[in-house]
Amino acid sequence: MSQPITAVRRIQFCAGHRVWQHESKCNNLHGHNYVAFFHAQADDGLDDLGRVIDFSVLKAKLGGWVDAHWDHGFIHHADDAQTIAALAAVPGQKTFALPNNPTAENMADYLLRVVGPAQLAGTGVVLTKVVLWETENCFVEVAL
């Protein structure tokens, strides 16, 4: 039995966050230059051209979502009232409320389980793994 073929698209974005109730400096408002690797597999094997999916489709669908919702914005826990109040003081500030703390782990999981299925619906492709680099030294992986 052959192994499934995976297409991987790299997407870079900049975003601020705060790990609400963190015991150290990550409790402060700060930001990162993130790099996400989206791993996709076809439901029914390769297409007629021999691809899982065209890389530009992954860029448009997944990168487009990241661009619209997270890039150059601030990601915060939906219950973090202090951060919500602080960001509200900046007119036009781009924000995104995660249902949990915006750790790299939770952000990658959200991309895998929420964004991927919504954005790739109807393409015949499923997102199987997200690798998210928060810094040059630290990354997380989440997979189905």
Summary keywords:
elongated; 28% helix; 144 residues; 3 helices; alpha/beta; six-stranded mixed β-sheet; Tetrahydropterin Synthase, Chain A; single chain
Mean pLDDT: 96
Summarize the main sheet: 6 strands, mixed
**CATH level-4 homologous superfamily:** 6-pyruvoyl tetrahydropterin synthase/QueD
CATH fold name:
Tetrahydropterin Synthase, Chain A
The helix content is: 25-40%
Characterize this entry briefly.
This protein has 144 residues and is an alpha/beta fold. It is built from 3 helices and 6 strands. 28% of the residues lie in helices and 33% in strands.
Please provide a written account of the structure:
With 144 residues, the chain is of the alpha/beta class. It has one domain (6-72, 103-143): Tetrahydropterin Synthase, Chain A (2-Layer Sandwich), CATH 3.30.479.10. The protein is 28% helix and 33% strand. It has three helices and six strands; from the N terminus they run E-E-H-E-H-E-H-E-E. The protein has a six-stranded mixed beta sheet with strand order 4-3-1-2-5-6. Helix 1 (55-69) packs across helix 3. The longest helix is centred in the C-terminal third of the chain and has 17 residues, at 104-120. It is elongated and about 50 Å long.
